[in-house]
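Re: the request from the purification team.
They wanted to know what the chain is likely to look like in 3D before they choose a buffer screen. I agreed to run a prediction and write the result into the notebook, where they can find it.
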Amino acid sequence: MHPRHIASLVADSLADTPVVVINGARQSGKSTLVQSLKMSNDAKARRYLTLDDSVVLNAAKSDPSGFIDGLQGPITLDEVQRAPEIFLPIKAAVDRDRQPGRFLLTGSADVMVLPGMADSLAGRMEVLSLWPLSSAEMADSPFVNRADALFFGDFSGLNIPPCNREELIANLLAGGYPDAVARSNASRRSAWFDAYVQAILQRDVRDLANIEQLTEIPNLLHLLAARSATLLNFSELSRTAGITQSTLKRYFALLEMLFLVVRVQPWSRNASKRLVKTPKVFLPDTGLLSHFMASTGESLMIKPSLIGSAVETLVLSELLKHIAFSQQRLSLWHYRKQTNVEVDFILENRMGQITGIEVKASATVDSKDFRGLRHLQETEREIFQNGIVLYAGREVIPFGNNLFAVPLSVWWAPAY
């Protein structure tokens, strides 16, 4: 089992918060993580129940209050999105006894948008995100938050090797789902992804929404895979999919709830303008993306546009995984001006300081690759920290004041 870098944050949260919620896609490792915590010397022994068990689910749904009142001591409830009826009884139980760490909940859907969850447990819970394995976790690298390192331009804690193209492509094809990563055979990994998508459709989609045409969802995922790392255009997507925009947006919101697609909103100094501009869309796991695109090592080698979107998606995925336990509490944006000046990603801390990140799949970088970052540096001098071009090259190279080219291998570089 690979160590999860968020584990210490979960333990800290359980020490002072009555309800801790771990959100993440199905098969991202939530159950393994929470069951390992109960064996830790730093955590109280706790009972584990999963609502994937039909008996437990029936008990929770038939008498939610009786079910919660009958649980003694610290308890872990897995897959709570299957029984949102228990949220109010959990609130009542916590109000009677605000013991830290009393409830550890996991959800394979974003529980914050489930009916009654945010209102009923507001002020009583902490929500953490667990994404599939990061490259550093797969390499069993000691804890170093690479999003924070990029934000500050401080790589002193990492031994960054040259980015080997074959290793990069292997990471793109594998993604981060633990069971998929464990399958080195391409056909067996493809079979896992097929089964994974079917399980999502037959279980989570049916639980969360009344959708009759389940066959439209895989087709939509295929279309979104082909558009990963591009601006989201609902009008074009609606025409291509043959789905009305209202239905399309409902499906899209469901896929977001299940962590299968991610929107990255545009950054603006004026926060009120951020949500009215066009976001970028991503399938946040490169293994699933490669599966939908039928990508192989050979195709990624010879198709620049294919590997370009895959590498940008890889960076998005790694940023999300490290932001989840960032000490800077970073948020993620993209930047685009009407003059076609753009920066792939912006990291922003709570003081409003920013670092820009550009992504290049090539092994070389020149001054033109810093055009968007220099624009950002010149127009946002007071808050600009660093400009980073991540590339498939060999060395960390300075390209001016607070501007660096950094190998993509920063994500799996060993920590000192």
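For the purification team: The longest strand covers residues 384-391.
Please add any questions underneath this entry.
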